[in-house]
Amino acid sequence: MDGQWSLGQDIINQIGPPGEKPKGTVGAIPVVARLVFADGRQQWWPAQAVRWTRSAVLVAIRPPTGQLRASPWYLWLSAVDVTRVLQVTGGGVAPGVVPG
Q: Highest taxon of the source (predicted)?
């Protein structure tokens, strides 16, 4: 993805890979990722946390509906830009906090 969302929109809160080795094995934890675009817009987008450290999370983000791309984009984001999604009774979901 190289920092590009769609139609040339740069994601400016993407960070480089962390200097420390990611903890644990590859996961697939439901999260919501905060994306900040070059034009100043912010958007919370459903994603999956696939690797993480204390300060950074590698998220897999599915392309927006209607785009031809089928495979997810992978972005390293600061841990403060990623929120865990918790399952609640009744089948709904509620935002939570990714433990640091």
A: Bacteria
Rounded CA-CA distance 100/7 in Å is: 34
Say how far apart CA 38 and CA 57 lie, in whole Å: 21
Q: Is the pLDDT of residue 91 over 80?
A: no
On the question of pLDDT at 11 being above 50, the answer is yes
Contact predicate 98/32, CB 8 Å: no
What is the token pair recorded at 66? 């209607």
Place of tokens 């420390």: 20
DSSP label at 16?
A: P
